Amino acid sequence: MNPAAVANRFSEAARVDINHLGVSGKIRVRGMIANHDRPSLEYAEATQRKFAQIGIHYELLQVERLALETAIIEANVDPEIHGIFIYFPVFHNEQDSYLRNLVDYRKDIEAGSIYWTRKLYNNDRLVDGDPSRKALLPCTPLAIVKLLGETGVYAKDNQPLTGRTVTIFNRSEVIGRPLAIMLSNDGAKVYSFDVNGPMLFVDARPEEINISRTQALEGSDIVVTGVPSADFDKITAGEIRPDCVCLNFSSYSNFDEDITDRNRIYVPRVGPMTVAMCIRNTLRLYRNFHHES
Hints:
With 293 residues, the chain is of the alpha/beta class.
């Protein structure tokens, strides 16, 4: 599957919506990057271009990391700024969590602050119980869910993954854990692996479990990987079922090359789709909190 083609559909839908609202060029986003890593900067610049293409003004600022706290506070109180996007990691420690939660939830495009996290964990899908204001979901987990939806593994009911088993290799608070919550909210039984061992998520509730990688993979309908290390033992086609849907969101490929020879669907990356979900969240924030009508 080509995630860029799927992402383009979502972005085009957002462009049409923006034109329908008559707000092209009026939605303003401030992106802040606090490192000098060239790939990160290139990704930020590509995001800026994509936002501009669909009619959202995206201001990208290079900020020294010790000045980032002040920059976030200033953007929070600026009525001309409707969305804030921070490129993490910054400090690679708990300071990043503090900065993430410093962003005003009404401008939090990534939906990483505690306001949106609490809604996710409680499966609360509305803002203040208002059916016209839907809650935000974190961009990359949402991108993964939307891509999985394109594969046909979702049924058309309230819990579309009922009866499905998912294994995820990554339990970060930013991607892996929210993804496990989201998929289990959709009815899946989710095995979650990281360096601290496996967990089982059912109905968004985790429990410690004793299961091997081999056992989890053998019984999975979907396998999602996001291990940011070249040392990870890559998953081979022989470890999983031929009809298993495989998706990798790490910058490293966590699957062996033979995965494309045997498996029905393999999604090698999600980057373009994450940008599309950032656009989606930006528009939802604008509708929920900044658009008078």
